[in-house]
Amino acid sequence: MYKILKAGQLAANIYEMVVDAPRVAKRCLPGQFIIAKADEVGERIPLTICDYDREAGTITIVFQPIGASTEKFAQLKTGDSFRDFVGPLGQPSELCLESSLEETKKKRILFVAGGVGTAPVYPQAKWLYEHGIEADVIIGAKTKDLVIMEDKFKSVCGNLYITTDDGSYGRSGMVTKVIEDLHEKEGKSYDHCVAIGPMIMMKFCCLTTKKYNLKTIVSMNPIMVDGTGMCGACRVMVGDEVKFACVDGPEFDGHLIDFDAAMKRQAMYKTEEGRKLLEFREGKTHHGGCGNCGGDK
Ligand code: NAD
Ligand code: FES
User: Which atom of ligand 1 is nearest to the CA of 163?
Assistant: First the structure.
């Protein structure tokens, strides 16, 4: 059992929990995820790690209830426990590797964080800051009340640009407008961008950054289901290569992803008929596991 040391809300329908998970906290890096299960019969929910404290042995997760299992998570209180809390899983962010730190230090980095996707950006900005790199960060939210983690970001980034769709706080408009304004009106330019948020946001961020020839990494966490490489839900074409977000990612070069195809596949995967059709079309590459085991049956 994994005790919830602190349970709270960051905004309406956005929950934050600090979980006692020393083995995960000891080894995780920004960009990796955990799989949580509320009880024995609950669904496995993959969530990108939003913060970790190696000394305290804790992992922070942030989530938005979108189904029965995450609804159940939201009802858990301080002192309750998760039945399972497995990780760290997936590949760390390429920006947060000691092995390429000297190269990373030469880059001007921009993070684009949208809605709930703001939370997984935080450990990356924090890791870079702790290694002497101050990245710029754009946070986008629908409205003022949905802007999360502003103060936490202020202490770990260079410039922080906040924008709301309705103009109720910070700048007005979507994150893509800020990317354009920074480049076209405010004399900024970057070498590396990381965009994390809803699929549609990541799609339009990539279309925008292509104009500036700005390499853009995205997190394909939203298409993951079981997080084990077995169910086939997170299969995604990256250029002409078949990848599985939960094993090879979750982060990929966004300019190599066909977001329309990925969103269409995500919708198809939700029905049994759709899964059967995908399995038929994709054959042995449908699953990330052995390819023959029928992991989603
Ligand atoms: P949201 O719909 O409020 O969008 C957040 C921001 O994204 C907006 O304020 C806007 O600036 C930008 N955006 C949205 N649509 C856009 C468009 N068409 N063009 C340009 N910019 C656009 O976000 P939300 O409701 O918090 O998002 C929930 C989604 O976030 C869930 O579907 C979840 O899957 C996803 N999510 C993704 C990750 C990840 O790792 N990629 C992590 C957590 C959550
Ligand atoms: Fe990656 Fe199931 S979530 S294969």
Answer: 11
